[in-house]
Amino acid sequence: MDDYRRVNILMGQPDYQTPPDFPNKESMKLLFWNCRETGNNTFKRNLTEILRIHKPDILVLMETKVSLSSMGMFFNNLGFTASTSVDPTGEFGGIWILWDNLTVNVRVSSANYQAIHTTVHKESYDDWVLSAVYASPLLRNRDQFWGEMEAMAENMTTPWLVAGDFNDFATQGERRSFTPNSNVGRNNKFLERISNCNLMDLGCSDPKLTWTNNRQGMANTKERLDRALCNAAWSSLFPGCTVRNLPRTYSDHSLFVVFTEGV
């Protein structure tokens, strides 16, 4: 309880909230976070505390805005001794995947500025594919990303988890704003793309709206931009999978944890 109260205080939440009922300790845990820039001391303090509490097997950071080489020792000291990355172009983007190679092995198959595709191997688990996503905020680039995903899905028979920041939302229930959304077709297109890739949404706990524009009052907008998707084979491999969104801290995006539940 002391650890949970401490992280609540760090995240600006009431310190009396009851801890959530997390899945069993045998779960493999993957933590995803659009952190909106790494490298500064505030980020390091927040991430260190989050990792101490949640202890993920695999850490995925998006929109890092700096190169991974500048922070190698920081992550080594936290126990993440192996990594792969697509560094940002200028100050835009960046996707990092980090893990402890004594407990899990992540093999990269392909990568670009919108996704890193890997195969995850862990003792007592079947191998499965992880695609860590930071989809571009630019529509034409997202169209390219989804075209590549649909081509990949045509030959995908392996269990497949696709997770990260998609810079898109699926329904009007995934947006809260006093500004009307005039582009309902955007939602339909996103759902169609998910379906074309034979993927399903794994759902999530509250807070369901993972991004805010940080404006006050009537100008505030919140959307669900961050999520985990999987194919039927991954769902069958991990039928007890749970996705837990965590309160926002440091970034304008919530971080989330995917629990596979141990096999």
Can you describe this structure?
It is a single chain. A six-stranded mixed β-sheet has the order 3-4-2-1-15-14, with no helix packed on it. It has one domain (2-259): Deoxyribonuclease I, Chain A. Helix content is 24%, strand content 27%. The two termini are 27 Å apart. The protein has 263 residues and is of the alpha+beta class. α2 links the parallel β1 (29-34) and β2 (58-62).
Indicate the topology.
Layout: H1 2-10, E1 29-34, H2 41-54, E2 58-62, H3 72-77, E3 82-86, E4 95-99, E5 105-112, E6 115-121, E7 128-134, H4 139-154, E8 160-165, E9 175-177, H5 184-196, E10 200-201, E11 211-212, E12 221-223, E13 226-230, H6 232-237, E14 242-245, E15 256-259
Parallel strand pairs: 1-2, 7-8
Antiparallel strand pairs: 1-15, 2-4, 3-4, 5-6, 6-7, 8-13, 9-12, 10-13, 11-12, 14-15
Helix pairs in contact: 1-2
Please state the average pLDDT score.
88
CATH architectural grouping: 4-Layer Sandwich
The helix content, as a percent range, equals 10-25%
Q: Please write the CATH class name.
A: Alpha Beta
- Topology-level CATH name: Deoxyribonuclease I, Chain A
Tell me the total number of β-strands: 15
What is the name of the CATH superfamily? Endonuclease/exonuclease/phosphatase
Terminal Cα span = 27 Å
**How many H/I helices?**
6
Outline the low-pLDDT stretches.
Answer: 14-25
